[in-house]
Amino acid sequence: MPVRIGVIGLGVMGADHVRTLHGMVANAVVTRVTDINAERSAQLGAEIESATVSSDGMELINDRDVDAVIIASHDSTHAELATACVKAGKPVLCEKPLAPTSDEAAGVVAAENGAGLISLGFNRRFDPAFAELRSVAQSGDLGAPLLVHFSHRNVESYPGADSAFSITGSAIHEFDTVPWLLGSPIVEVSWHAPKRSGRVPEKLQDPQLMLLRTADGVLTTAETFINAAFGYDVRCEVVCETGAVQVTKPDHTTVDVSGRRGTRYPSDWRPRFADSYRRELQAWVGAIMSGSPTPLATARDGLAASAVAEAVVTSMNSGGKTVTVTIPEI
Ligand code: ISE
């Protein structure tokens, strides 16, 4: 019998997960969907014949036709909903971040109490290019990693995005990817403001630059630019003692026209990371079917990333001071 999945939050990512589960993931059936926007729920409910609409997240979580839950609603709702899934004893894939603050994230980890029900949507772990980058960096073939350069560019930010959201909602990916790549936790951070783009709202510092130091001494430069305009683009290079390795953009084609050869940038993350989302969902469903531990990021990984985000926000609010990352004891 397939895993019956309910999806909470049907914005860009939630709707994408519903369609991927429905069309491309084996042993999964979407049985329930819900969103605070009733029109969106109705549209997706009509599109996906197996799915009916629940009135809200709590109803969906406790529905007898739901074995497992995906949370893709607003970041501020993640902690409460993930905790409700744990109380209902249901596996949950919670989109990043687990919570915007480390205290809230710690509360979820405490509620989970080692049950292993929570997986975090740090999808880059399932991207073939990032997986290869990691295995080369960790192989020792290029000597030890010394330095990592990241840039993370979006075309435009969500309406209302402020400087903290750029850290807790976007750069949070780097806060998970760096320790995963290097096998060492981020222990110290600092935040820096380059010249501000004149195209962005006043309350938003964009781009931003962060320095992240892992316990093994490797330093990462992480640029986040959520109104970069030209296209969706994530770059990462690991510089090692005798070589360097970087992800190349996984384009399938180049176009020759008008005296030029070129590749295209997608307008958001879905095409760039489509493979990773499909692989992540398949891995999650497979583990539920077989009763194995989640192969995705765990609640503790989510807590670690939220603690780094909080330290970066503290550095930003203190004019760029170096801040030690503190993970609450549980
Ligand atoms: C979005 O939620 C993502 O997950 C994307 O990968 C990231 O680039 C974007 O900034 C986030 O808003």
UniProtKB/TrEMBL annotation:
Alphabetic keyword roster: Oxidoreductase
InterPro entries for this protein: Gfo/Idh/MocA-like_OxRdtase_C, Gfo/Idh/MocA-like_OxRdtase_N, NAD(P)-bd_dom_sf
Domain Gfo/Idh/MocA-like oxidoreductase N-terminal: start-end pairs: 3-117
Keyword Oxidoreductase in annotation: yes
EC annotation from Swiss-Prot or TrEMBL: 1.1.1.18, 1.1.1.369
Molecular-function annotations in GO: inositol 2-dehydrogenase (NAD+) activity; nucleotide binding
One Pfam short name: GFO_IDH_MocA
Signal peptide: none
Domain Gfo/Idh/MocA-like oxidoreductase C-terminal as annotated: residue spans: 168-324
Family: Belongs to the Gfo/Idh/MocA family.
PANTHER family the record matches: BINDING ROSSMANN FOLD OXIDOREDUCTASE, PUTATIVE (AFU_ORTHOLOGUE AFUA_2G10240)-RELATED (PTHR42840:SF3), NAD(P)-BINDING ROSSMANN-FOLD SUPERFAMILY PROTEIN-RELATED (PTHR42840)
Name of protein: Myo-inositol 2-dehydrogenase/D-chiro-inositol 1-dehydrogenase
Lineage: Bacteria, Bacillati, Actinomycetota, Actinomycetes, Mycobacteriales
